Amino acid sequence: MISPAPRPAYRPAITDAQPTRPAGPRSPLCRAAGLSLAALARLLAGASVRWIASQPDTCQRVYFANHTSHLDALVIWSSLPQAVREVTRPVAAKDYWSRGLVRRWLAEEVFDAILIDRTDIKVHHSPVDLMLREAGTSHSLIVFPEGGRSVTGEVGEFKSGLFYLAKKRPDIELVPVHIDNLNRVLPRGEFLPVPLLSCISFGPPMWLEAGEAKPEFLGRARRAVLALKE
Amino acid sequence: MNDLRTVALITSVLAMLSGATLVGQFLKRHPDRGLDAGAIRTFNLRLRGWWILCTVLAAAFWLGTTATVVLFGLVSFWALREFITLTPTRKGDHRALFWVFFLFLPLHYVLVGLNRYDIFSVFLPVYATLFVLTRVAVAGDYKRFLERTAKIQAGLVVCVYCLSFAPALLLLPLGGQAGLDRSANFRLLFFLILLVQFADCMQYVFSRMLGRRLVAPTVSSNRTWEGLLGSATSTALLAAVLWWAAPPFEPWQASLAGLVVAVMGFAGGMTMSAIKRDRGVKDYGTLVVGHGGVLDRIDSICFAAPVFYHLTLLVTGVKPG
């Protein structure tokens, strides 16, 4: 176990680190929709929430989790305490979440999601910059570093986005999250959930070590998620 | 007369629980009595479970028959989700499971609430079985087909079908018996639950005190023949003593019911132990951390309820529905 490096002071790595939309209360309808969807998701997914050597906090964080189901982001979001939920934005795939009026409304208004275009990733149009710009200096993010839902239930290799996030904003806490059994609640390709029991485990925050290379860091992050499985 | 019996039953249960709680607290405060601290903790935990159970039941009784049927429906729902979470399913079972949870389970409890014994007694064992077999076959995944459908079916029968005979007691038309009103049905259900819990407790006590011969060491490390015998005898005795509380029974019929309930409770515990051993977990509750394990609490009552129900029909000659 590598001991965490001392937390560096906040130093914006990108100059235009302003959120594109002001943080603040959304319309009451969206708030109510968010609350009831969160309650419904928790009821259906029977999620029990564990914080292992970790505490909920409103400080700026990136929650990174294994991805098994469309419910993942919603259930993680709903397992956070209300105050933390207010400042936490899921990062989701644009090709899925901007299709159709309901999905778009849910993604943009209710969950305040940051939509990433998976088909159009370029160096000058990097999703990491977009995420950091949207997160600004106060919002936390929920990301799925595998880049897509796993079919087998195994946790796949992590894509490099998490590494660049950590590199550009070394002050943000990276919190590993393990999602258990949600793939059976709503598997890939299904739209009706089966109300089994699932478990969401939050682990201790980690940071990019000084001089840590990309593959080592990504491997360490993946192992941090797997370690929560027990 | 009926009110008097209800009050007497509630008073005796409260007195028994309070007495046991006092003993439990006394033992907790005096750890020097040479008793196993772990056993005392288990005893106190069980007692707490009893208090919660009695409070919930009292609330449901107070709200009426429909509320009690709904309460048992919710318990079934939770137990079934624990059961299915524990047993591995494949993606091909997903759609079948969806309908099992959201159509067959609620519809069954609606039929129980309407007292349609003619339909609800075959609805899950026959129609749900046919549906599950067909739906899983249509889904196209034939791997371990019989095993998978059998698991779903076993879950439905144990967690839903069997348990629903407990609230079905509330709808038995006991009115044909002289001077019995609705409170008689509630006493009957309460009698069943009391006997089941008592038998569980006695099984534990006798196994610890006299237990030598394990019934099946590979399945359960604390269920012994001595425990079964002690629990069956003492439950039959308690039932005979409390026969006045169970409306349609003569004393000998009540004690027969006690005997049967104790044996069936034992059967339920053994069965669930076998499933848990196979899956390598100790409690259904530890499967997903933080959940209480409803199935651990209700396994005995699931097995005892249908037998108790039919025994009541048999000895009283009451026609259901």
Task: Give the topology, please.
The complex is a heterodimer of chains A (230) and B (321).
Chain A: H1 28-45, E1 47-51, E2 61-65, H2 72-79, H3 82-86, E3 88-93, H4 94-97, H5 101-110, E4 114-116, H6 127-135, E5 140-143, H7 161-168, E6 173-180, H8 182-185, E7 198-202, H9 214-227
Helix pairs in contact in A: 1-2, 6-7
Chain B: H1 2-29, H2 37-63, H3 65-86, H4 94-113, H5 117-138, H6 145-162, H7 165-168, H8 182-210, H9 225-241, H10 251-279, H11 284-287, H12 294-316
Helix pairs in contact in B: 1-2, 1-8, 2-3, 2-8, 3-4, 3-6, 4-5, 4-6, 5-6, 6-12, 8-9, 8-10, 8-12, 9-10, 10-12
**Assembly state:** heterodimer
Helix-strand pattern of chain A: HEEHHEHHEHEHEHEH
Strand content of chain B: under 5%
Portion in beta strands of chain A: 15-25%
Number of helices of chain A: 9
Over the alpha carbons, how many angstroms does the gyration radius of chain B reach?
20 Å
Given the C-alpha coordinates, what overall shape of chain A results?
Answer: globular
Are there runs of chain A of 5+ residues with pLDDT below 50, and where?
Answer: 11-20
Please summarize the sheet with the most strands of chain B.
none
**Spatial order of the strands in the main sheet of chain A?**
1-7-6-2-5-3-4
Count up the domains of chain B: 3
* Nearest-integer average pLDDT of chain A: 82
